[in-house]
C-alpha cells in the first residue's frame, strides 16, 4: 500500500510503482518506464476510457487530468458512469504521434466515483474542464493497478 498525498486516500499502487528502465524490443518498440508514462499522461488532456458491462466493451473519449498518479475525469449521468459503476475494472489509454514516432500509455485500474465533500473538493482543485456545456457533476478517479507504455519509432524496417 502506498500513501499518496492526502491522509484520506490510501492507494494500493504496488503494481503501478515499478520504475525500472526497459529495453527496446527487436522490432524497435521501446518499453517506457512508469515515471515517463506519467510524464506523457500529464502532457495531454484527452484519453479513452474502456469499460465492460453486460458482456459488451465500450470505449469513451474523456478529458482528464493526472492527480497524484491517478487519472481524474468528470462526467454526467449516463452510460459512462453506469458502466464504470457496474464493473469498476477499467482500462484507460492515451496516445500521441508526430512525424518521427508515436507513443501509447495504458492504465489498468479501478474506477471510483468520488462522493465525499473532501474528495470532490480535491477533484475540483484539479480543474478538469468539460468539452461541452452540459453539466458534468460526477468525478471519477482511476486508481492504477498497472501502468504500461511504449514508444514507436517510424521508419523503414531493418534488413
From TrEMBL:
InterPro entries: Pyridox_Oxase-rel, Split_barrel_FMN-bd. This is Pyridoxamine 5'-phosphate oxidase. It comes from Mycobacterium avium subsp. hominissuis. It holds the Pfam family Pyridox_ox_2. It comes from the Bacteria.
Amino acid at each position: 500500500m502506498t500513501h499518496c498525498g492526502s491522509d484520506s486516500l490510501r492507494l494500493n499502487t504496488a503494481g503501478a510503482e515499478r520504475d525500472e528502465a526497459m529495453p527496446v524490443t527487436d522490432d524497435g518498440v521501446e518499453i517506457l518506464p512508469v515515471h515517463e508514462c506519467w510524464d506523457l499522461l500529464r502532457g495531454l488532456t484527452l484519453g479513452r476510457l474502456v469499460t465492460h458491462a453486460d458482456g459488451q466493451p465500450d470505449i469513451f473519449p474523456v478529458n482528464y487530468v493526472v492527480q497524484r498518479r491517478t487519472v481524474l475525469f468528470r462526467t454526467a449521468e449516463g452510460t459512462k458512469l453506469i458502466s464504470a459503476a457496474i464493473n469498476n475494472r477499467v482500462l484507460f489509454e492515451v496516445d500521441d504521434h508526430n512525424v518521427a514516432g508515436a507513443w501509447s500509455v495504458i492504465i489498468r485500474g479501478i474506477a471510483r466515483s468520488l462522493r465525499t465533500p473532501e474528495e470532490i473538493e480535491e477533484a475540483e482543485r484539479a480543474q478538469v474542464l468539460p468539452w461541452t456545456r452540459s453539466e458534468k457533476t460526477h468525478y471519477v478517479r482511476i486508481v492504477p493497478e498497472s501502468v504500461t507504455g511504449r514508444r514507436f519509432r517510424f521508419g523503414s524496417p531493418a534488413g
